[in-house]
Design brief:
alpha/beta; 7-stranded mixed β-sheet; 7 helices; 7 strands; 37% helix; binds S-adenosylmethionine
């Protein structure tokens, strides 16, 4: 299916949020080659690359120009904020205290992304691509593969989509991490048991409770690892 800009609602998180979601220390960012799928206009790459990280972001959004993405962000942000306000009971307002704080945080992430996008495209840090398509990277090219607010969350994409996407991520990454483990209705997705069933015999699987939570029930991160762990998730794990 074509990825059409006027159906896209770009929305992106900050590096500090990725670090909390995926339990990544500053050292982890510098010591691991990272590929992150469905980053959209998040500032993981802009901020992480600036401090010396090796990060590649993959998203179909990157087929559009910086002006097109910027215009679309400004066209849609009021709608996203209004929807969030209407459904405010579905969120935990402790760290992000209000809709205006949320707006500031998301706009700061997306502006950092916009400022970095053309440079990052030239440096091949932003790659236009979509899961579950096969990427051009050889096996085990990356220490860590991430998916924030895409895989598992959009459960309506179906099991086959998720299965093939996770297979491709595991082909090119030694370990992958997916956050959160709930769906858009804040319910633990039934895709999780299918993932454990399909990959549990071959890979090491862990579900980690993180200190990040904005969406209610969105506090767990799934790890699927081939070898021993690449980053410090366990050090910052809270007991469930
Ligand atoms: C909810 S946003 C999450 C953005 C970012 N990861 C974050 O947490 O701030 C979902 C992202 O998935 C991207 N996306 C949609 N279809 C995709 C696909 N088939 N493969 C990879 N990314 C996709 C969208 O363009 C969008 O940027």
């Amino acid at each position: 299916m074509a990825f059409v800009l006027d159906k896209v609602v770009p929305w992106g998180r900050r590096l500090s949020e990725y670090q909390e979601m995926f339990c990544l220390s500053d050292r982890d960012l510098l010591d691991n080659k990272i590929i992150s799928f469905g980053d959209g206009p998040a500032s993981l790459n802009a901020e992480g690359s600036k401090i010396g990280g090796h990060i590649v972001s993959v998203d179909p959004l990157y087929q559009f120009s910086v002006t097109e993405i910027k215009n679309r962000i400004y066209e849609t942000k009021a709608i996203v904020l209004e929807q969030t306000y209407k459904n405010r009971q579905n969120y935990i307002w402790d760290k992000i205290k209000s809709i205006s704080e949320l707006e500031k945080l998301r706009m700061s992430a997306m502006n950092l992304f916009l400022d970095d996008f053309e440079k990052g495209l030239a440096e091949k840090r932003y790659i236009c691509g979509k899961l579950p398509d096969k990427t051009n990277f050889p096996d085990d090219s990356f220490d860590l593969g991430l998916s924030s607010h895409f895989l598992l969350l959009y459960s309506t994409l179906g099991w086959e989509f998720h299965l093939q996407s996770i297979k491709e991520m595991l082909r090119i990454c030694k370990e992958i991490r997916i956050f959160p483990t709930c769906d858009l209705d804040s319910q633990r997705t039934n895709l999780l048991s299918k993932v454990i069933h399909s990959f549990g015999n071959t890979y090491k699987i862990k579900i980690i409770k993180t200190s990040y939570q904005f969406q209610k029930n969105g506090y767990e991160m799934l790890i699927i690892a081939k070898h021993k762990k690449t980053a410090t998730a366990e050090k910052v794990t809270r007991d469930s």
